[in-house]
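# step 3/5: fold
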Amino acid sequence: MAAAGSVTVEDKANVVRRVVRGASEAGARHFMVHHDSHRIIRRATETMRDVELSWIDMDLTFTEEDTVTAVAAMRVADCAVVVVIGGDGTNRAAARAWPDLPVVPLSTGTNNAFPIMVEATVAGAACGHLATGRCRLDDVARMVKVVRVTPRGAGLPDDLALVDAVAVDDPYVGSFELFDPATLRVAVVTRAEPTAVGFAGVAGLVEPVGPDDEGGLLLRFGPVADCDRVVRGPTAPGHYDDLGLAEVRRLAEGEEVVVSGPLLLAFDGERKRRLVAGEEVMLAVRRDGPRVVDVAAVMSRAAADGAYLR
């Protein structure tokens, strides 16, 4: 079994509180927010009198579609920047709603490859400087790579993964079961980092590919006994497996990999989409994803401008 940590509601409220305080210190006053089942935003801001909250009018489904709906509303409202507090799956849902989303993705301490580790107060301050126009987004954000998932055939929706798209011969949908190495077939990753956990981490132990490198990496899996190359890597926090590698090669940007059903597709660690026999999708790494804010670059510019000198 895996040994990932958990984050409490109070922990998340504390992160939100620090983000809002940092942003307000930088001059931001108007925040667009959405309801959630644990009232995290309300807990975080109930004692703040110097900020204005605009609540998104939406019916909660208690699924990732709530994130999609909320971020779509933020896009329509032309928000300067969006703070996503959560893991790879939450950020993926946000990117579904706003493909070139301007985002500060804050990690909440679980198994994440996409979010960044930065103190929430400082992250909020960077957002405030963007919202007030002290920094231009184009100067301090980079568009990241994603795996675009394009069906072959009419009537099927496109999809995406921020870190990895994996085809498995597996009956389980969702994110609670560990991946059985015997079920793995193909993985396309946007980054392969030996410091990560999950498929990006396993791939990084074979051939590192950084987020700023062009293209991605393809891995085809096979039975350990039949493969000349075997990698032992952390497929989940605190959990290692031996994975047989039938093929590993770099992918050029836009190069398409065809995956045919019957298989299950997992995006960023969550089994999401079943391909029946006869269905095919094309996986390709493209640099047309969210625009991730460089918090350090924003704060350096703000400091150089004397934003905090009195």
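# step 4/5: annotate
The mean pLDDT is 93.
# step 5/5: archive (pending)
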